[in-house]
Every structure is written in structure tokens, then in C-alpha cells.
Amino acid sequence: MRTFHIKVLPEINHVCPNFVGAAVHAEFHNTPYSEPLWKEINRFLSEYRKLYTIESIKEMPSIQATRQVYKRCGKDPSRYRPSGEALVRRALQGKELYQIDTAVDLINLASIAYGYSIGGFDADKIQGDQLTLGIGCEGEPYEGIGRGILNIAGLPVYRDKYGGIGTPTSDNERTKMELSTSHLLAIVNGYDGNRQNVLSCAKYIQQLLQDFAQSTGGIIVQF
Fold first, then answer.
1. In 3D, which of 39, 30, 87 has the Cα closest to residue 209?
2. Which residue stretches of the chain have pLDDT < 50?
3. Cβ pair 52, 28 in contact under 8 A
4. Would you say 45 and 62 are in contact if contact means Cβ atoms under 8 Å apart?
5. Which pLDDT score is estimated for 2?
6. Contacts of residue 114, Cβ cutoff 8 Å, sequence gap at least 6
7. Buried/exposed code over 131-163 (b: 16+ C-beta within 10 A; e: otherwise)
8. Half-sphere exposure (CA, 13 Å, Cβ side) for 54?
9. I need a labelling partner for 195 at 20 to 30 A (CA). Which of 92, 139, 188, 206 fits?
10. Beta pairing class for 156-160 and 148-149
11. Contact indicator for 32, 101 with CB cutoff of 8 Å
């Protein structure tokens, strides 16, 4: 597998000096649907809804820290809701989660479990071996998955050699995972600065890939 180097730019350190991240890079087998995974998702959600309500979101550091970073960058987190928060809200409202494919579904489960917005990319579509995490610029081209053209000015954004591939609100169509995807790069964004939780979330993704996507686990890199 390729090795990716991830660099956090000073503009992110300025708005979030405690940011920590973890990347999971793994080979796996994607499928349209995994019945065992969805049994696990439904079991998890049943227990999750017993522990938390929609009001609990105000007390979740992983979600609140991401919202604060959006505000510091000049973006409205309610209009451009981070994906981690959107998934938690959906779960706690009792709505069914969207079923996409095994790779996306297991990342969504990890996102709800930890409250982090997690980027999930087809590693073979990433251009170059370096990613940088910065802040989106006015007029910067970006097509969000299922969202069309997205204004990413003021959003934290990962860029490869050709431009943006992922924000906490939406990943880019250019590097999205498909059924043919065999190499996953998943990035956990810890704007709360909780290195241990971010690592635990990455390990959870690694375990889900092993349990439900025929992966040997891959590697985890912290940054």
C-alpha cells in the first residue's frame, strides 16, 4: 500500500491548537450490504438511544469542538452541519440511517459511536502522497458527495495534489468510495484534542473492517 503523509497547516493550528487526527489505511473488500454489520449497527443504536437524547449533543466534546472550529473559521455549523453531528442527530431522532455500502456504513457507525466527523476516501483516487489540512478559500472548486457544488470557504479541508478531497461536512465526489474500492483511507478529525479517543475511534474502524470487510487491519497513523 502507498504511504500518505498528512500535514496540518498553521491556519488550522491557529483556530484549533489542540487538533489531533488519526488515519486508517487498509485493504478491504467492499460489498453492497452486510447483514452482520447491520445487526451490529441496530444493536448499537438500540443501546445508544437508551443512553443519550438529542439534548446530549450539547455535552459531547467531539461535536461541540467541531462546531466551535467552524465558527472560528467563519462558517455556520448549523447550515453546514458536520457529518458526525448530523449522524448523531439522525440516530437520536429515531430515524433510520442511510444504507450506502459496507465501507460507508461502518464508517458511519464509528462516527456515531465517537461523535467525530470521519473522512472516508478511495485511497487509489488520491493524487500524490501528501495531504494537507487547511481552510477552504472563497471560490475554491468542490463537489460534495450527493450535495453538488459546495461552498467550502471557511471549512476545514483536506487537499491532495489536485485540490480538496474532504471536509467535515462532506467528502468530495472525486475521491469517494465505491463498490470497486479496495484501499480505504479513513481520517478521524479530533478537534476536541482528545488523542486517546481519536486513536480508539481509529482502532474501532480497523476492527470493523476486519469483522465485516475481510481486512487484515491495515495501519493507523496519528498526526
1. 30
2. none
3. no
4. no
5. 86
6. 62, 84, 188, 197, 200, 201, 204
7. bebbbbeeebebebbeeeebebbbbbbbbbeee
8. 8
9. 92
10. unpaired
11. yes
Q: What is the DSSP string of the chain?
A: ----EEEE-HHHHHH-TT-EEEEEEEE----S--HHHHHHHHHHHHHHHHH--GGGGGG-HHHHHHHHHHHHHT--TTTS--HHHHHHHHHHTTPPPPP--HHHHHHHHHHHHH---EEEEEGGGS-SSEEEEEE--TT---EETTTEE---TTSEEEEETTEEEE-SS-BBGGG---TT--EEEEEEEETT--HHHHHHHHHHHHHHHHHHS-----EEEE-
CA distance 13 to 197: 19
Angle at alpha carbon of residue 71, lines to 6 and 75, rounded to 5°: 80
Homologous superfamily (CATH) of 5-222 is Phenylalanyl-trna Synthetase, Chain B, domain 3 (3.50.40.10)
> For residue 207, with 0-12 CB atoms within 10 Å meaning exposed, 13-18 middle and 19 or more buried, which class applies?
middle
Identify the residue whose cell numbers are 467525530: 116
User: Which three cell numbers, joined as nine digits, stand for 119?
Assistant: 473522512
Q: Which amino acid is at 166?
A: G
- In whole angstroms, what separates CA 138 from the centre of its chain? 23
Beta bridge partners of residue 171, listed in sequence order: 166
CB 161 within 8 A of CB 102: no
| C-alpha angle 128-174-141 in degrees, rounded to nearest 5 | 95
Q: Rounded distance, CA 19 to CA 195, Å?
A: 9
Burial of residue 126 (number of CB atoms within 10 Å: 0-12, 13-18, 19+): buried
